[in-house]
Amino acid sequence: MAGLAATFGSGAMTNSIDELEYTDLILATGTNTTENHPVIGMKIKRAVKQQGTKLIVIDPREIDLVKYAEIWLRQKPGTDVAVFNGLMNVIISEGLYAKKYVEERTEGFDALKTTVEKYTPEYVEKISGVPAEDLQKAARMYAKANRASIIYAMGITQHISGTDNVKSTANLSMLCGNVGIEGGGVNPLRGQNNVQGACDMGALPNVYPAYQQVSNEDSRKKFETAWGATLSSKPGMTLMEIMAASGSGAIKALYIMGENPMLSDPDLHHVKKELQNLDLLIVQDIFLTETAQIADVVLPVTGFAEKDGTFTNTERRVQRVRKALEPPGEAKTDWEVICGLAGKMGYPMQYSSAQQIFEEITSVTPSYAGITYRRIEKEGLQWPCPTHEHKGTKFLHKDRFSRGLGLFTAIEFMPPNELPDKEYPFLLSTGRVLYHYHTGTMTTRAQGPSERCPESLVEINPADAEKLGISDGQLVKVTSRRGTLEAKSRITTKSAPGSIFMNFHFTQAPVNILTNPALDPTGKIPEYKVCAVKLEAA
After folding, report:
1. What percent of the chain clears pLDDT 70, i.e. is strictly above it?
2. Distances (CA, A) of 246 to 238, 259, 328, 365
3. What is the DSSP letter of 283?
């Protein structure tokens, strides 16, 4: 994430998945790991049961991992910064932090210390609802562990304070000397396959491959030489900025690949208007998604099993992908379509294979420079892998941070953009379920997952259901300031009183009609995890 780049380089997992099984403590926050990352979830369960690893869960929902946790801090949605500041308040005031590490490897500690002074456990309890004694217990557990790993996912990033939340995880980890050691670190679990690879390849508005800044003249000249083209020094737009520019007419044409904003973006009524304002909308995908249905041109491409190439997973591991099936009809691989279009627009891109493209990648991407198809024939390598002799990097920042010293950031708590009131008394949070993936483009078309989870449900706490006279399985109406939808209720203690939860996989109950498009000012990520709604029997 952009906010972490100064200290951590790329917003990648600092450590490896396997290390979770052999660490002393795992702090899981904003990650429903067993449903969103089931393989990693299994490793965490195994660590707790077989290795005696301690687990702290910080989550507003009673997720499956709570059963395995030594302690569960159930914070109000959107109060993560306060909770992290409270943990650090206890650790600093009780002298439990890694003094030598802080002195030798970090800067900015005094400002952090001053800021967290007021976040006493009692003060944090008022903001977050987390009992003061539970906060103290969790802080001591984390600080006293020899090695502790923090894992998080989109429950941390999808807030207007998303960047602040991520920086807070870094603050806590560095405070206890957990960055740059095996079994430690700050480990974001990527939300989709190859998100890490896409970011590594420069699919972000402000960087070239390997996070080389577009505003840096040396980087720009290097890529101009490699690509034989003149490049702009101005960073591009983020997804939500692109949508707004489409709506205002500043952007006339949009080319969308493998993304389905008509189900995944917040405030969907608005998204539809913005996309329909374009002169030209092109969608490149494997199915006719909700977004493809309103496109002017649809380009059919191959699925993962119909092409060669590489994926880079959540632990920075670059892995081979091999073609197992012939693609149907006239479907082409993504790179062939892009090269064909570039050629027609006067810029010849003449590659003969995915391997040839990968060889170019390694020539301009220092962290990938030592990786070859031959070296990853059987098993992937973790970047940074700068030379052909290098064995890949299991964990980052061993002796120093990419910027030299690790930077503490003093952060104040700021409440979510939209809180419950008389008219909209409930908090809605969104997420995924085990059986479906993102906008359901593939999984809702598959028989097995659809039988296990055929529809979106509104998870309601029993106390709220009783007050509203709603029974399990009854149709309910959920309304926010942006729209209304109907879905069946599921009465469960997973949701706290005053909160409801819905998944966003189904076009029949497109939950992002309701969600708030307010953005994190730095990362430009929308506040999917908190919005105010009202709830009634349909």
Report:
1. 98
2. 12, 16, 33, 32
3. E
- Banded pLDDT at 396 (limits 50, 70, 90): confident
Residue type, 353: S
In angstroms, the CA 492 to CA 125 distance is: 24
| pTM for the whole structure | 0.91
Query: Residue-wise over 331-357: b if at least 16 C-beta within 10 A, else e?
Result: bbbbbbbbbeeeeeeeeeeeeeebeee
Q: Identify the CA nearest to 7 among candidates 361, 513, 340, 407.
A: 407
Q: Name the β-bridge partners of 131.
A: none
Which helix (H) or strand (E) element contains residue 157? helix 154-157
Name the burial class of residue 121, with classes exposed (0-12), middle (13-18) and buried (19+) by CB atoms within 10 angstroms of its CB: buried
Q: Is 159 helix (H, G, I), strand (E, B) or coil?
A: coil
Distance between CA atoms of 83 and 87, rounded to whole angstroms? Answer: 6
DSSP 196-264: HHHHHTT-STTEEGGGEETT-HHHHHHHHHHHTS---SS----HHHHHHHHHHTS--EEEEES--HHHH
375 CB-near residues (< 8 Å, 6+ apart): 381, 388
Q: Amino acid identity of 473?
A: G
Classify each residue of 61-87 as buried b or exposed e, where b means 16 or more C-beta atoms within 10 Å of its C-beta. Answer: bbbbbbebbebbbbbbbbbbbbbbbbb
Those residues whose C-beta lies under 8 Å from the C-beta of residue 147, and which sit 6 or more positions away, are: 23, 24, 25, 178, 181, 182, 183, 184
Tokens of 283: 């969608």
3-class secondary structure, 333: coil
Alpha carbon distances (Å) from 194 to 83, 151, 207, 219, 435: 31, 18, 17, 24, 19
pLDDT tens across 325-355, in order? 999 999 999 999 999 999 999 999 999 999 9
In whole angstroms, give the CA distance from residue 276 to residue 246. Answer: 9
3-state helix, strand, coil in the chain (%, to 5): 35, 20, 45
The β-bridge partners of 285 are 300
CB neighbours of residue 189 within 10 Å: 20
Dig out the tokens for 57 from the structure: 């869960």
Q: What is the DSSP annotation of 184-208?
A: -SEEE--SSTTHHHHHHTT-STTEE
Domains of the chain listed by start with CATH number: 2-189 (3.40.228.10), 195-236+301-382 (3.40.50.740), 426-537 (2.40.40.20)
Q: For 186-229, how does the pLDDT look when each residue is reduced to its tens digit (9 = 90+)?
A: 999 987 888 899 999 999 999 999 999 999 999 999 999 999 99
Residue 7: which pLDDT band, with cuts at 50, 70 and 90?
Answer: very low
Q: Are 130 and 124 in contact (CB under 8 A)?
A: yes
